[in-house]
Amino acid sequence: MVKVRVAICPGSFDPVTLGHLDIIQRACKIFDKVIVAVPINPSKNSSFTVSERMELLKLATEGLNVEIDSVEGLLADYAKKKGATAIVKGLRAMSDFEYEFQMALTNKKLNPELETMFLSTSSEFMFLSSSMVKQVAGFGGDISHFVPECIADIITERLSGSYLK
Ligand code: PNS
Question: Do 64 and 22 contact (CB within 8 A), yes or no?
Fold first, then answer.
C-alpha cells in the first residue's frame, strides 16, 4: 500500500499573506496532502474570526490540493488524528527562530512521530507579516503586493478605518 504523506501548515493567518501562501504552495510540492490549520484560541486577540480566516484561506488557496480546517486543542493531537507526519512552518529571520524552535521541541515531546520542518521564506516576503498588512489596510493603504489579489479588497473593506477611530 502506498503511504500518503500528510503535512500540516498551522498558523493564525490573521489574515493570510503572500508569504504564508508561498510556504503552503511549497509544502504542496513536498507532501501528498497538506492541511492548513487555524487554531481556535479564544485568548488570542484576532482581528478576523476563525471562520473569516478560513474563508480567506479557501479563496487564497483555490486550485491547490489543500484542506482548510480549524483546530481545537493541541496541534500534536490533531496531527495524530489526521495521520500527519510533519508540521511545515516558514522562517523569516533569526527573530522567528527561538519561538518556533520552542514550539517544535514541545510538539516533538507531545507527539514523537511528528517532525517540524522549517522552510526559509522567499526573499521577497522576508519583511511581510499579518500585523503589517492589518496596519496598512487599517489606514486605507494598498495591500495588493502583500496578500493574494482575490482577497485584497475583502481585507481592505473589513479593516479600513480600523486605525482611524
Ligand atoms: O501564526 P502563529 O501565531 O505563529 O501560529 C501559532 C500556532 C498556531 C502554530 C500555535 O499557536 C499552535 O500550534 N497552536 C495550537 C495549540 C498547541 O498545540 N500549542 C502547543 C504547541 S507549542
Answer: no
Pocket lining: 110 vs ligand 1, CB cutoff 6 Å:
no
Asked if 61 contacts 21 with a C-beta cutoff of 8 angstroms, the reply is yes
- Tell me how far the alpha carbon of residue 104 lies from the centroid of ligand 1, in angstroms: 10
75 CA from centroid of ligand 1 (Å): 7
User: Domain residues of the chain, as ranges?
Assistant: 6-123
Cell of 56: 480567506
Using CA positions, which residue lies closest to atom 4 of ligand 1?
Answer: 11
CATH top-level class of 6-123: alpha beta
**Which residue is it, cell 490549520?**
37
Question: What does the pLDDT look like over 117-135, one tens digit per residue?
Answer: 999 999 999 999 999 999 9
pTM above 0.90, yes or no: yes
